Amino acid sequence: MTSNSKTQLILARILCVPSVVTRYIKAQRNKFLFQANPLTPAQRNVMSAFFSRDLLDLARLVVLDGIRLKNPPFHGILKTLGFSNLRDLSQVSAITFDYVIVSHINFTNDLLFHELVHVEQYRQLGIRRFSELYVRGFLAGGGYDGIPLESNAFELGCRFEANHQDHFSVAEVVAQWIQQGKY
Ligand SMILES: [Zn+2]
Questions:
Q1: If both were cysteines, with which of 4, 116, 143, 147 could 85 make a disulfide (CB 3.0 to 4.6 Å apart)?
Q2: CA pair distance 45, 6, nearest whole angstrom
Q3: If you average pLDDT over every residue of the chain, what do you get?
């Protein structure tokens, strides 16, 4: 971690960024929940070899039609404080708010898998801890790609994409990562 990112981390703590992020995630989840749908039987069929039934029952999906997500209000404040490389939410394929996955594009199995890993992370960590680790990972890793919650989802996604028949339990891997303090 550079001294600059250390200063940013201290600033983030003073400004209670994880609490702000937690509130934002809950508000977005509640906002999109009413228009969200459960997984289709075909999606469940593919994902059931990797995710628990509880998780597949819980997850909700939204495909936005003609509108783009707006950046959260705290982005502007963070930018003035020197936080760069913030994700422009209008440009991402999809984003997961707790158990509600909001997408700008139709779900492929690969996209759905990645976002369901985040749902499992939220489920095991809770929204508050997920937010803390996401912010910490962002600052320590110098950007989005350095966030362990993301690298974990990318790693498992690659394994899934390489072979849909190579069945494994995402919940077990996430539990291991938590136990080993890898997030
Ligand atoms: Zn992700």
A1: 143
A2: 45
A3: 91
51 φ, ψ (degrees, to nearest 5): -125, 150
DSSP state of 167: -
Q: What is the pLDDT of residues 19-74, one digit of tens each?
A: 888 999 999 999 999 999 999 999 999 999 999 999 999 999 999 998 999 999 88
CA 153 to ligand 1 center in whole angstroms: 6
Q: CB count, 10 Å around CB of 87?
A: 14
pTM for this one?
A: 0.92
Q: How far is the CA of 115 from the centre of ligand 1 (A)?
A: 6
Q: Which helix (H) or strand (E) holds 61?
A: strand 60-63
How far, in Å, from the CA of 61 to the mean position of ligand 1?
A: 15
- Strand-pair category, 60-63 with 94-97: unpaired
Q: How far is the CA of 113 from the centre of ligand 1 (A)?
A: 10
Q: Which residues contact 67 (CB under 8 A, 6 or more apart)?
A: none
Ligand 1 center to 7 CA (angstroms): 26
DSSP string computed for 8-25: HHHHHHHTTHHHHHHHHH
